[in-house]
User: Which sequence fits this backbone?
């Protein structure tokens, strides 16, 4: 069953490159699945076994990686909406940020990690925690998920992408990834280049460390928008950052799951 599901996702991901508009090639589809695929390669045996027991036939991280986006239209999950990001406005320090009382990406990651580590958590609670963590670790590594509150993480920063209207958040969410026409497995294969030493170093980072990395990158990319006419040169200059962040997210997701479930 699991093999059939994997094959179906690969086929649909490849077809979607040709059949769907660029807006759908978000970190929330191809990118998120690539993050999850990288994580699959770095899970230890205990974590893999635990995930199989918890998720059953869906025990393949790319399957569940987009769950948090899939349920956005369901009002009962509306409380999770602020969990996808952490806003730091221009010139603001982390210590001065007024945390959202409804939660944010750091709190979501912390809460779900605790659920996995708690022996008293039910299988249902752990299954949801795996789905949420798989998604949020990916989101945390997209620079503009730690963007300015004033422009909704770059969503209000209008640019053109090969002459068509877009915004800088979408460029990083989907436009650059979509321009490559890769399936998530191909993207993951290109990204997953970390050495054992690098894996250990990456997995030593805390979610707050990951957040600061994205904020630093985001600050740089805000400054480099210029006139906002983006295309081939922008891909040439920045696509390696997309690959790097997907790799880092996947390796770190595996580290979190290994520690919580291993």
Assistant:
């Amino acid at each position: 069953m699991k093999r059939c599901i994997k094959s179906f996702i690969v086929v649909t991901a490849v077809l979607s490159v040709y059949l769907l508009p660029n807006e759908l090639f978000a970190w929330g589809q191809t990118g998120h699945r690539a993050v999850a695929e990288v994580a699959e390669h770095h899970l230890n045996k205990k974590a893999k076994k635990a995930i199989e027991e918890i998720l059953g036939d869906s025990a393949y991280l790319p399957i569940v990686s987009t769950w948090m986006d899939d349920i956005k239209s369901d009002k009962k999950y509306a409380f999770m909406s602020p969990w996808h990001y952490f806003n730091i406005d221009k010139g603001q320090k982390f210590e001065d940020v007024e945390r959202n009382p409804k939660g944010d990406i750091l709190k979501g990651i912390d809460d779900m990690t605790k659920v996995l580590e708690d022996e008293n958590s039910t299988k249902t609670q752990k299954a949801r925690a795996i789905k949420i963590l798989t998604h949020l670790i990916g989101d945390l590594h997209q620079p503009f998920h730690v963007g300015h509150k004033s422009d909704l993480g770059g969503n209000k920063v209008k640019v053109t992408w090969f002459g068509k209207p877009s915004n800088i958040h979408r460029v990083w969410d989907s436009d650059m990834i979509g321009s490559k026409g890769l399936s998530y497995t191909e993207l993951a294969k290109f990204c997953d280049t970390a050495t054992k030493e690098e894996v250990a170093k990456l997995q030593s980072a805390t979610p707050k460390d990951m957040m600061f990395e994205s904020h630093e990158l985001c600050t740089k990319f805000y400054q480099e928008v210029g006139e906002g006419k983006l295309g081939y040169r922008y891909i040439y200059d920045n696509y390696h950052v997309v690959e790097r962040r997907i790799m880092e997210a996947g390796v770190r997701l595996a580290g979190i799951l290994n520690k919580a479930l291993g």
